[in-house]
Amino acid sequence: MRLADYITSDHIKIGLEGRNKDEVIEELVELCSEVCDVSDPDAVLQAVLNRERDGSTGLEKGVAIPHAKSDAVGTLSIVVGISREGIDFEAQDGKPSHLFFLLVAPTSESGPHVQAIAKIVKLIKIDNFREQMINAQTPEDVVKVINSAENGEEE
Amino acid sequence: MNKNLNPFERLIVYIDGSESSIRAAKLAIAMANAFGSRLRVLYVVNENLLNELLKARVFVQVEKMDYERDLEEDGKRYLGYVEKLAESKGVDVETSLRKGIVHEEVSCEVDEWQCDLLIQGELGEVLSLRDSFYEEGERILRKVKCPVMVVKGQGKINKLFEEL
Fold first, then answer.
1. How far apart are the first and last CA of chain B?
2. How many structural domains are present in chain A?
3. On the CB side of A101, how many CA atoms lie within 13 Å of its CA?
4. Cβ(A130)–Cβ(A93) under 8 Å?
5. pLDDT digits over A27-51, tens only?
6. Is residue B3 part of a domain?
7. Inter-chain CB proximity B60 and A54 less than 8 Å
8. What is the C-alpha separation between B148 and B112, in angstroms, rounded?
9. Domain annotation covers residue A49
10. Most buried residue, A57, A107, B109, B154, by CB count within 10 Å?
11. B99 SS3 class
12. For residue A55, is it within any domain?
């Protein structure tokens, strides 16, 4: 499982405009609908919001991984959003979230979905990776950071 | 020299659904055919990974159980696929689906079935040397007590299988 196979520069938005959790999720789903194989953006949005109601996916150290299963996507879809200001995403440590990975997968692709989430969780434990992602200036820089990390050049 | 000795009476191929593991299954089928071996195909639901994601609070309990069911269904589908591949070449296979910590479950299966050779696909990518100690393929290599074959490469195996 290589995240770089799923995340190209058009899957990345630096400077999210949303000012709260729901707005950020809407913005990420909108981006996902533009660049991924999404048949029903509203269904995807609802699935992600419903999952979020079961418990926030805001983790520690400024990272959130909103995700859901939905057959409104054709295949595992991942987009990345970055907010310099930070968003209150009801994170575990109570701090603002800056780096967002939205993952949506059809029910038939739970294996790759779980592997992708596990890979992201593994990467965000690396301080340097998190910092470089949050401070990236362009989507291309984000792709480079992900590629370097997956090639074992981080840590 | 005992010419009747078969070093590969019992083969297990471990699959995780990856293309590499399916290639390993194709080679295992070819070997079972060549050596007249009994072949068992094994899939393990990675319960440990799901528990780690639950512990990290990425998953909630109900969601973890939901994914566990999905992965079990995936496993049945992959096992069925390999079963059909083997059938197409006239090779009988047994299937086994387990749940738990992958390398431990593979090791148990190897011991319980007294396997002569474990066959698996390429090792997974690692992000660092430390990471390599936690990669399931590597952990299987270290844990099991029988010889292990790691199947690398693509074209030759697919060609071999087609010509079988």
1. 29
2. 1
3. 27
4. no
5. 999 999 999 999 999 999 999 999 9
6. no
7. yes
8. 16
9. yes
10. A57
11. strand
12. yes
**Is A67 annotated in the active site?**
yes
Instruction: Quickly count: other Cβ atoms within 10 Å of residue A14's Cβ.
Output: 18
Q: How many other C-beta atoms can be found within 10 angstroms of the C-beta atom of residue B119?
A: 26
Structural domain boundaries enclosing A54: 3-150
Question: B134: domain CATH number?
Answer: 3.40.50.620
Per CB-CB distance under 8 Å, the chain A contacts of B130 are 155
Residue B5 lies in a domain: no
Per-residue pLDDT of B13-53, as tens digits, reads 999 988 899 999 999 999 999 999 999 999 999 999 999 99
Residues 6+ apart with CB under 8 A from A138: A9, A14
ipTM for the complex shown: 0.88
Rounded Cα distance between B35 and B40, Å, is: 14
**CATH number, domain with residue A43:** 3.40.930.10
Q: What is the identity of the amino acid at B20? A: S
Q: Do A114 and B53 touch (CB under 8 A)?
A: yes
Please tell me what DSSP assigns to residue B125. P
Residue A47 maps to a domain: yes
* Contact residues, chain B, for A152 at CB < 8 Å: 125-128, 131
